Amino acid sequence: VQALAPVHAPDAASAPSLTLLLENETLDARFADDRSKASNRRRLEKLRQWQARYEPLWGGIGAVAEAFGLAFAECGDIDTAIDWYRRANRADDGSASMKAAEQLGNLLARRGAARGDAEEIGVALTQLRPLAEIQPTVERHNLLGSAYKRLAMVQSGEAALSALQSSQEHYAQAEALALDTAADDSFYPIMNAMAVQLRLAALRRQPKAALDAARVAAARVSEKLGLCGP
Predict the structure, then answer these.
(1) Could you give the angle at the alpha carbon of 94 between the alpha carbons of 88 and 97, nearest 5°?
(2) For 86-113, how does the pLDDT look when each residue is reduced to its tens digit (9 = 90+)?
(3) Residues 93/100, Cβ–Cβ less than 8 Å
(4) Helix crossing, 157-180 with 213-224: angle to 10°?
(5) According to the model, what pLDDT value does residue 30 have?
(6) Burial status of residue 185 (CB atoms within 10 A of its CB: 0-12, 13-18, 19 or more)
(7) Within 13 Å and on the Cβ side, how many CA atoms surround 218?
């Protein structure tokens, strides 16, 4: 196996400059033409070297921790991303955005589903529910719908049905908020709500109801606008 060439950490003169570097690295990873495993390994190695150099200096700053979390998540290191998002949410300076709290819940749900760990998904729901209660948004109800859907994947019987029902309810709330605010981002909640509806019907051995043509049309319009959810 060919060894990776060393990557020198940039000379970030301040916490804001490091945050900007990390945000740029995230965007580069997201829109890179080269999405190969080798390219991703190089990106992760770069991030780990930046982490080793700058964590002692600015790792306790919320915005820096959030930027590290975002970059590691984009490159697929979910465990490290979760650690950084936790630090961002605990930071005393309060410079992390509410997005950090949302993404912590989202990543916990994703990791819990991958591990078949209903308890960790429950922790994710505990993280996400208060956010939606304090300030309901399309994104937050989408994340709750997704987390409950993942919970159903690792459960069975009535517990799975209950989780799917909760998932459908949150997607419906996300859809309603999108329509109320004319945000044009209804594709994701509509399509997922209908998928959950079909899954519930199958588990309950009920006839599949016809999909609402108006909702399907609205979802297609939103998809064309490129607003397809998280």
Answers:
(1) 65
(2) 999 999 999 999 999 999 999 999 999 9
(3) no
(4) 70
(5) 93
(6) buried
(7) 19
